[in-house]
Structure formats: structure tokens, C-alpha cells
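Re: your question from the hallway

Yes, I did run it. Sequences:
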Amino acid sequence: MTVYNFSAGPAVLPKPVLEKAQAELVNYQGSEMSVMEMSHRSSLYDQIIKDAEQLLRELMAIPDNYKVLFLQGGASLQFSMIPLNLAVGKKALYVNTGAWAKKAISAAKAVAGVDVEVIASSEDQNFTYIPEITKEMIDQDAAYVHITTNETIGGIAFQTIPDVGDVPIVADMSSNILANDYNVEDFGLIYAGAQKNIGPSGVTVVIIREDLLNEEPIFSPMLDFAVQAANDSLYNTPPTYAIYIAKLVFEWLKELGGTQEILKQDRDKAQLLYDAIDASQLFKSPVNQADRSITNIPFITGDEALDKKFNQEALAQGFQNLKGHRSVGGMRASLYNAFPKEGVEALVAFMKKFEEENGER
Amino acid sequence: MTVYNFSAGPAVLPKPVLEKAQAELVNYQGSEMSVMEMSHRSSLYDQIIKDAEQLLRELMAIPDNYKVLFLQGGASLQFSMIPLNLAVGKKALYVNTGAWAKKAISAAKAVAGVDVEVIASSEDQNFTYIPEITKEMIDQDAAYVHITTNETIGGIAFQTIPDVGDVPIVADMSSNILANDYNVEDFGLIYAGAQKNIGPSGVTVVIIREDLLNEEPIFSPMLDFAVQAANDSLYNTPPTYAIYIAKLVFEWLKELGGTQEILKQDRDKAQLLYDAIDASQLFKSPVNQADRSITNIPFITGDEALDKKFNQEALAQGFQNLKGHRSVGGMRASLYNAFPKEGVEALVAFMKKFEEENGER
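Structure:
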């Protein structure tokens, strides 16, 4: 049976990447060592982590005045590290667009000395839209404005990055990094857990404009952006194998034609599914059309029992991890870069068949 | 050329583990998914992390009143998390045995509200011995006594765990976990970066007695032992693939006969090298004989130029990562569980040949 993995993360990885990793797992390029066995200070590994950074710089067109860090702890640790490094004694502005934004807000409020203000929210409509942000809403003395560019659970995304004046935008880009046409220059700091569009879980990418690096040390060197930047992510042993897989993913993406090409493919895949939803009498998208995510696409029938039946039958057909998050219900298809178009086509065909069999409601 | 990897970490892994990981990298047990692609909330992955914990419990005979956590950030993040969780408003006692103990002490001092006291140190002799710890030295109101059971750089180890009364012992066991005959009951908390005796870098094992779990929340959920324990290490996405490799290593170790059997092998390997050093007129061990580590074995000629020559010739023969840490100089052989005895025999033979060729000094 062909398996299509719609997981929201950890998620499907490119097959050629997995096959390359498999081929060289025991013996990396004739070294007689696995990448997992290499000292992070060896010249062989140094080339891997440097290549990973360089490839990401190319793919995202990251300017020279930004540092690229490979850290640990996921977006969840960034929720605390960012206010701790950037906003103690200052105001930090947050946009509340869903489950992940809420976690970022809650963590920032728990950092002593940070004055957290939620400047906009779509909680009034269960996070089904992106609230409008205008420059007038922004206190220009704030340390930053935090946004979640794509809400993995709610399935909404910023289509453009708002103009907030000179205040740096800090963005949780975990679920649509390398699947957008944003400009890095429009952000002060971008962070992303790897386990959606980059690689295995256990590595977190942070892209930070150099002038935002803290001057005062943070109590823990591991939580200190300036320390991590000064050590090129090698303050301690980084998650070496996860970074190696990320490098292979970046190579795959570059070979494919880069971010513009994958974005075109991602949009095509998403359109296929949204068209099927819009044409259906049974399925509907719970989110505002203009704010639809292309990477995480929730859909519902409006009938919990029918959703459950769909999910059970889908699973039996090899559609894995389609069940929606409990806060939204229904189904959710995560269509990250490595998710094949054939999988969307198969899902759409299955949805049509299901609708025929289960009639109009 | 046969390569022997003496790296201090990330380090050599068991060949059967790498081969098994390779065989199932693209398709784990017929799931048509890589372990890297699995949702951490899927039943398939749940079995992997539960098995990893259960195997470690068996191998170390961990009592039921201890939690086993798989975290991120390495020992370096634990250096901050431990005082933050256990010692704010209290005294924390530290034993200074070398480079890693010093880092732990420095990080604890930077945590606000922790009264750090170094109760013993071997810095007077460049950390070549383990200082004696007696119960009389221990303030019984202290939150804990921190020791580094094995100093990866200095090459000294606690042969027995000191009696400190009712104060919990907190131990950095990164470089000799699963290579000792300590009793878990003698510790309040044990922590270890995985990249020596457990698996790839990027996962940190914490074994904590339940009564030591903090009651007051820590500002960051990711840094909060109680939160991590309440969520069985799944508060956020854990480093799933690294935990899977750790599980394979634990299976390998269990099949081999468990910790007692590997300890016997480790002692044999170390003895082979120490015997060669002791019999040599050229090489010597810089550390106190009674405190010798069996996992990290530094040795020197006393002549920097000769050390350099040895390292160059050794590297050319396939002995990788033998160069000693700059703070000790000379050579260092890290002989973790997965390091093969043949590698020690080959090194000893090479040392004899080198000594013959380079004469008595």
C-alpha cells in the first residue's frame, strides 16, 4: 500500500534525502565513520555544518548582517529565549493568531521584566483569520513585534508581512519556512523548529540580525544568542546528525530549483486541495479564504461522526496522520515541501469517492 | 585502512546499531516511513520512546521513584537548569574536578538566588586527582552536592560515590554513564549528554528522583523538570531520531549482557592501555593512579614535539581523534562502550613501535 504521511511534524522528508542518508549512514564518504560518530570539532563535520549554513543562506537570500544559528529546544524554547534576550526592561508586542502564538505569549509573560502587550488577536473567531496590523498600532519603542507567520494547527498564514515601522519583527516560521516569498530583511529574527520543512526534530534554526544580539550576558550561555553566535553554534555539541540531514534537505531543495520553484509546487498542491474543498458539498474549510495556509490545510464536514468515519477510512487507505487537531476537529492535511503531489491527487480522489458514498447532507 | 575513532564525543557507535539504523532508515518496520518522519504523538513512535526508557531503566536498575527524561541542550543546559530547578534560595555544593565541573560551577553561580559553594577542588594539581569528600564537609541544609563522575578532559573518575548524608548527589555522568557500577539510589539526579555512551548528540538523559521535582514553576516550561516529567518528555517535539538510536544502543547493550558485562569489557580495554603506559619508558599517565578513568585516558610523553609526531603518525595509521585536549596536551584515548578491543590492541602495538623507533628519552 502506498502511504502518504500528512503529519504536521515531524513530517515527510524527501525520499532522495533519506536514500542518500541511508547509503552513507555507516560510512560517510569513505571516512569509515558515521556522521553520528564524528567529533563536532573535526574538519569533516565542520564542512557539513558550514555547508548547511551556506545553503540556507542561498535558499533564503539571507543578508550578511544576519547570523544563522543551529540550536536545540524547538520553537518552545525560543518562546522563552527571545524575550529573555531581546525584551527585558522593554515592551514586547504580540499578535495572537492561534495555538502557537498563544504559547509564545504565555512564555513571554513568564519572563521577568518583559512588558507583554497583545496588539491584535483573532481569538474572537477561533483563530480563523489573520488580524490586520497597521503601523499606527505599533509602539515604536517596543523591542519587537512577534508574529507566527503560519499557524500549524489553525491553518492560517500571513500572506504579506505587515509594515510596523522600525520595530523589528520576530517571527515563528516553523511551519512555513522555505515555503513562502517573504524577505528576510523584513524581519529582525526568524526562528523555526526543523521538523516540518528542514529535517528531523531536535534542531532549531534561528536567523538573527546582528544588531539585535544582546550585549548583556544571559544567565545561561546556552540561552544566550550572542554566545551562540560568537561560537558559530558550537558553544557545546550541536545536534550533529540532525544538522547533516538538514544540509541534505537544503541540497535537495537547491537542486530542485530553490525556494521559488518549491513555492510554486506548494501552491499548486494546496490549490488542488482547496479547489476540491470549495467544489464539495460535504467538506469545507473553516478558515478565512484570504488567510489560507498552503502548508497546513484543515477541513471539516461539520459532523463529528462523519469526520471520524472519514478519518478511519482514510487511514485504512494509507492516508496517515490526517486527523485534525482536537482544537479544530475534522481533518488536517499538512503539505510541506517534501509532500508529493500524487498524495494530494490521491486524497482529492478519495474525498470525492467518500462524498459520493456518503451523500449530500 | 581500518579506522579507530578515539573521539571524546560524539563518539564511536556500535556497528550493529548503525547497520540496523541503516537497514530501516527509509522504511521503519514496514511502515513506509522513516523514524525521522513520524509524528512524536503516533503510536509507532510512542513505542520507541517507551522502549528506550524501559531499556535504560533495566540497564541501570533505575527505581520506580525516579523519572527518566529525554531532553535537549546537552549537559551545558543542565548546568543552568539544575540550580534553577533545585537550588534557588538555597545553597548548592560543588566539587571542582576539572573542565566540566568548572563549567557547571560557573553556570550555577550565574543563576540568581543560588548560593554556590565549592567544597573541594583538585585544581591545585591541574585536576589530576579526585579530592576526598567526607560527610563532615557537607552542609546538610544544602539543596544538593554536585559531582562530575568522570572528567572527559582530565581523565579522572569517582571510583565510589561519597557518603554525603541526606543531601542529594547531583551527577554529571555524561562520559561514564552505562560504564560504571554506581547505584542510582545513591543519586538524587543523574544527567548525561548522549553523545558518548548512549547515541547521537542532541538528546540529554536526565534521571531525577521524584521528590526533587520542583513544585514552583520555572519561567520556561522547557526548562522545568516538573513540566517535562508530567509530559513524559513530550511537552514539545523531542529529538525523535536521536532517541530511536539511543533505543537501539540500549538493545545492543542488553543483548551483550547488560551493564555488568560491558563494564568488564571496558575495564579490560582500559587495563590494556594503562598497562602499556605503565610499562613504557616514553609514555606516562598524567593522573593519579587510584582515580584513573576507564573511558577517557590521557597520556603524554612530556615532550610536546614528540607528542605531535606521535599524533601525526597515529593519524596516518587510522587512529582518529587521539590528540589530547589543549588543556592537558599529549594524547587522549576515549574508550567508550562501543570502542572495539582490537582498536586498543592496535594502539598499544603502535605505541610500542613508536617507542622503539623514537628511543628512550
